[in-house]
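Protocol step 4 of 5: obtain the predicted structure for the target chain.
Materials: sequence only (see below). No template structures provided, no constraints applied. The aim of this step is simply to have a reference model before the mutagenesis design in step 5. Sequence pasted as it appears in the construct record:
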Amino acid sequence: MSSAAPDDLRGNRDFKRLWLAQAVSAYGSRITRTALPIIAVKTLAESDGMVSLLSAMQLAPGVVLAMFAGGFVDRASKRRILVAADLIRALLVLSLTLAWALGALGMTQLLLVGAGVGAASALFQITDIAFLPSLIGKRHLAAGNARLEATEAIAEITGPGSAGVLIAVLGAPLAVALDALSYLWSAAMLGRIRAPDAHARVRIDTAPVEKLPSTGEDFRLGLRTVFGHPLIRPVVVSIMVGAFSGGFYLATYTIYCLRALQFSEATFGAIIAIGGVGSLAGALLSRAFVRALGLGRALIVTSVISSACALFIPLASGAPLILGVAFLAAHQLFGDGFAVAFYIQATTLRQTVLPRDVLGRANAAIHVVTAGMLPIAALLAGAIASAFGVHAAVWVGVLIGVLAPVMLWPLRHLQVMPEPAASGPIQQTAP
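Step 4 output (structure tokens):
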């Protein structure tokens, strides 16, 4: 590890490789994220219910995979898992372009690709969060998370806006080929990381098979670790509520903008890009909020503002075009900005206070209970949209989201980031 100051990662070459990998793939993934529902709506002319099903299929397989992945991530080479996930995503996304070129693209393939990319992305996310502490050390986590989130924000600024233009010029099926190239770049950069890959104390390649915990034991340990920790439990419950609200957003936002508000693809992409500006500001200001308010209050305040800004979404309906665009832009700018400020501190808190030996299992458990809300909510949103209209579904999702900050109230007296947890025997982390 570099001997630089705690917030200085400039001398860490392996972190630079990780950063370069994620910078490019983050941009590419925005193209596919924007393109998949547009392919369903514009190219295949699918119904609102099928678009909602696509949203659910992008999420549900990752939740199922996470139930089995935690122990594997803790014991295996995290770098190799990240590389494999990138290669899988590249092949799946490229298959859309090939099928379109052959005139064989259909909704079944779109659902399968969405499911596969979602599962691989979930595995990547779980592994990435567990990999970072061993790559840069826990004292660098706040700086590292802020830099990675700033990169994600820049991708959010440039990705959706340019995706809208690329889709308008090339067509969505051809534009997603650029995402495949970004995943290949990411795999190449991650493959160049030279730092020793930290494994858990129990390794797959050395422990007798009979001593390895079962998948069920791994998952239960992850749940006990997360919900047994007094600082992590309120954050996770809050994220669960926010994720349920987010499932409505994922299922309805594209339909709402393109059909109900009749925005063009370019306008839609530009509005989402504004969220990147807010996300960048949130990444840059996140630690300033903590210094000004204390960690617990910063988590609560950023969550409150982010949730309140979601009210701009339904208010855009029925407003003049310019005002509707302004409302949605305000939601993207301020809602995303405060959400990212919250996420950086929440993730850093998790990485800091949970022992590294079980971080993969804890991440997997968190992914299951939070991302698991998304497909359920997406399907419910689709049913509400079909029965009562997309505007009603949007309102339901927004009102659920305002409850998320309430769950953070037990953290109101937390002032600073706690001392890092020491790695110890795995069984010591269970309450």
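Step 4 remarks: The chain has a mean pLDDT of 82. The chain has 17 helices and no strands.
Proceed to step 5.
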